[in-house]
Write a structure and sequence with these properties.
The chain is mainly α. It is built from eleven helices and no strands. The protein has one domain: Alpha Horseshoe (MgtE N-terminal fold), CATH 1.25.60. The longest helix is centred in the first third of the chain and has 16 residues.
């Protein structure tokens, strides 16, 4: 999608949001491919990001989340409740969840892993080669324990 199209879409979504036309917002967002919607979300003010994200259908929300930059993902995570974060993590493919964990600071990783169901957490740990307790690969060096 071109920069002009993204700006036009962003303006349209902002007008619908300002007018509190949430069903219309949802209807428009449902028609957009996840990469295009993610491009629009990247430029939203931080306080608008969770509001519009909550309007996305669950499957589209997970796809959009996976398309966001790590900085935008962190802004969004900061604006979501634990229940909403769990819903996002549960919908992500294991490799997308793994990428997310690799990019986030430790405090955010702990929150993400705390919200993931045991099977998702186990897959993330396996893909990252984390020990079962969920620590980072090199924690044994930091804590002086054997791998």
């Amino acid at each position: 999608m071109s920069d002009t199209a993204i700006m036009t879409l962003k303006t349209m979504l902002a007008h619908l949001d300002d007018a509190k036309k949430y069903q219309s917002l949802r209807d428009v967002m449902e028609t957009l491919p996840a990469p295009d919607l993610a491009a629009v979300f990247e430029d939203l003010p931080p306080e608008k990001l969770p509001v519009l994200f909550r309007l996305c259908p669950k499957d589209l929300a997970a796809e959009v989340f996976a398309e966001l930059t790590p900085a935008a993902q962190q802004l969004l995570i900061d604006g979501l409740t634990d229940t909403e974060l769990k819903a996002v993590v549960d919908e992500l493919f294991a490799d997308d969840a793994t990428d997310l964990v690799e990019e986030m600071p430790a405090s955010v990783v702990k929150r993400i892993l705390a919200q993931a169901d045991p099977a998702t957490r186990r897959m993330i740990n396996e893909l990252l080669q984390y020990p079962e307790f969920g620590g980072r690969r090199d924690d044994h060096r930091i804590h002086g324990t054997a791998p």
